[in-house]
Fold:
Amino acid sequence: MVDGLVAIGAGIAVGLAGIGSGLAEKDIGAAAVGAIAENPKMFGQALIFTVIPETIVIFGLVIAILLMFL
Amino acid sequence: MFGRSATAGNYAYATTRVKARKSFLFPRETYMKLLQMSVPEINRFIGESKYKQEIDELATRYDGIDLVEYALNLNLAREMNDILGFCQGELRVIMWAYLMRWDVWNIKSLLRGKFYNATEDDIRETFVPAGSISMQDFNDLLKKGSVPDVVEGLSKTIFYKPLINALDDFNKTKTLAPLENTLDLVYYENLLSIDLPGTKADELFVSFIRREIDFTNLRTLFRLKRAGLEHEKIMPMLIPGGARLNMDDLRKLAQAPGFDDFINLLKEYSYWAETAEAVDRYRQTGSLNAVEIALYKDQIAFAEKISHLYPLSICPILGYAIRKNVEVNNIRTISRGKEMELSDEVIKSQLVI
Structure:
């Protein structure tokens, strides 16, 4: 029973963090593609800005791992 | 957050693209440099800038001032069509309605050309096909023989029915004013009737359009009061829907007995602050140009201000569209001024920088 609830908690942690990242990345990604369309030299910078919200998922993943293995 | 549907518009993508383009606009120093050049030198200078493609395309057919004129118009049209191309959803709807001002511009040029029997080439030179009516359609309209024929040719546009109704007045007065006023009225009515989501940025966009109506009305009043027209003849030429000057205010201003009375009455209204200095200059020079440029500059400054307030909205795109138009107008003014051998000071006074 407890193991099941822990697994659900871990899933929620990763899932909600993923949704949060997706929402954040939606506009950044669109803006990045816009910037690259005007100036292809912006590719490197645009990529970095796009992946910054990915850190939120990593936080969720860390919480999930802590829940599952500690 | 989740409420924005697929029809909401691609604000992040479109605003980033226009911001990138804005960084390529000519700075003030470039106009000062252009002022030191002759027309062929201006041609070469802009031919090495972002106008290269247009200059290269047209250089075999035109030269001198004609080349500048055609290249600037073509570049402006392409730029506006590009913007329309990458806008989606409600953003596209708003831009589509906003860019119809180029339809109004082109139709007015066409009507004036036909009215004064200008050649097809002369009329074509003034076209900026950046609106909803294509260049192909305008080429077809160019072949029409008279003003009523041109109006008949506009049957697929929103301007058709109001223009047909205005044809009676045109036939009575034998002036283009009723048709031109109808075009302006239809344009602004259509723009203000768009169903916007009602965000703060949308409100600013609407207030920008309403200010533009005020400035258009003020410009009309300045011109017509100076020409000594009676208020009955002025009122049909004014556009309702302004931000700070409603039709009652405009009627009061139009009813002023003379031009000086009109100026004195204007001091009671909030736009006096924007026009006071220019009116002083008018009194010194006798030219209304200073007043018109002051009004235009104020409107551009307002567009510039709102374009920074809400980054993910229509405002930055509107700001860019206006700045691009200003750039094209400035280059045209310098080229025309150089062609007519005007002094740098005179040309500079006509620039919006």
